[in-house]
Amino acid sequence: MCQLLGMNCNVPTDICFSFEGFSARGGKTDDHHDGWGIAFFEGLGCRIFLDAKSSVISPVADLVRRYPIHSTHVVAHIRKATQGEIALENCHPFQRELWGRYWVFAHNGNLIDFHTDGAGFYQAVGKTDSEKAFCLILETLRQHFPQGNPPLKELYAVLKEMTETLAQKGVFNYLLSNGEHFFAYCSTQLHYIVREAPFAAAHSIDQDLTVDFQALTTPSDRVAIIATTPLTDNEVWTQIQPGELLVFQDGLPLNFDLG
Q: Is residue 259 part of a domain?
């Protein structure tokens, strides 16, 4: 299946180190070679790069590896196709507008016998179950909150209920962000790490590459990296539990009590 990479932080930060190792999984250290994509939120704007070529040979991926774009919300994906041909319209992450903000979604998994009537405001362009699920999520939020953007706790409750319904159809790991809130749902496999002071060096699992974060950060910086599987071999990653929907804000997972 596909693999996911996300970043949420309290100050705009580049993701070059993590993306260097992650993109190697698109045909070099793993076989996710059916396209890739990455989205960077910058204020209300969202900069998205997509390519149906493998991330290890894509000139666009090479640009991203060399270009330190600073963002507080990043969503990336490398694809191993299950539904939909290898084509640009089937590359994640997908983007739509809701309540005057861009929303970006990337999915790892496979939803079996998942169909929608396609009659809502949001329409899928490609043929993936992932994009159809994204459109259904946004359609549900749009109908449930017709007055506009609700408080986070109310939004979370509806999103959690919708996520659990979709997860019954198969594997449904995903990352979702609107540039304000960052959601990560684990169906089978998803991990995260929070990097904060005192910072240390990190070594990539996929590349012989080490970075000393202490030399690149300030004591107040905090960065959460979310990935399908850990990206480094000298740090302690936290496994998100199956069925758990986390919200990251300013580089930390929030603690929700919906009781």
A: no
